[in-house]
Hints:
By secondary structure, the chain is an alpha/beta fold. It contains 9 helices and 11 strands.
Amino acid sequence: MTTxxxxxxxxxxxxxxxxxSGLSNQNTQIVGIFDVTDIDETFLKKVGLPNTVKTSQExxxxxxxxxxxxxxxxxxxxxxxxxxxxxxxxIVGTTGLEKKHFKLLEQAGKSVxxxxxxxxxxxxxxxxxxxxxxxxxxxxxxxxxxxxxxxHKKDSPSGTAIKLGEEIAEEINYSNxxxxxxxxxxxxxxxxxEIGFSSIRGGNIPxxxxxxxxxxxxxxxxxxxxxxxxxxSDGAIEAAxxxxxxxxxxxxxxxxxx
Length: 258
Ligand code: NAD
């Protein structure tokens, strides 16, 4: 079965990668692309799409089985509304989401198929499992997460770093209360049950995440490095192909790989 997809934020860094991944996936047909500024024929030609492709949000939601969203958090208000109105599946890779955005996803998941992953790479999602396993064995070790991204990234720490922290926290019965995002603001010793986060920004790095387990006199580090954005766009296209045959609901990457 071919999945008809449309890509929101088509002019962005991820948008162009999603178009390439969509075009090279045999089970996918791109039927729409849109962005905040108009998509013209020159752009369609540049990315190798025919001019029959829909270029507005409204037409894309009608034509597609699934919309892939790597844009910005405020866009979710109208994307979830359009998804429900048109019975279109929604794959969300946008990061920096807050409680109000997650509520929108949960609400939409009651009437359509919704998939959310702050990191769409298969490698990263397997890295999460390795980190969980390490954390379950290294109970007395101090846990620190360090992430590095390109100079244009707006949110910090990255959605992937937070997700990594959440995965570890779930494994060892911690919660978000154990997260420390603010070490530089306070002059105090490290608490024992803490997961610390640090962010580095620069260059054109698509994403690096390290979790360090510091014990007394020894440390263990696990690192995932992304060399380009194809890992995210290929994963998002696979998610779209998988999602359209599921029941309505809100899914994560773990649902797809287990
Ligand atoms: P970008 O700024 O290069 O691109 C975003 C694009 O979305 C822009 O072209 C912008 O005009 C467009 N856009 C914004 N609001 C829109 C709207 N309402 N309708 C249509 N288009 C809209 O950013 P990017 O590097 O491509 O990243 C986009 C998002 O994806 C960020 O939140 C980033 O953190 C996230 N991201 C997630 C993953 C993952 O695996 N989940 C991987 C990489 C990036």
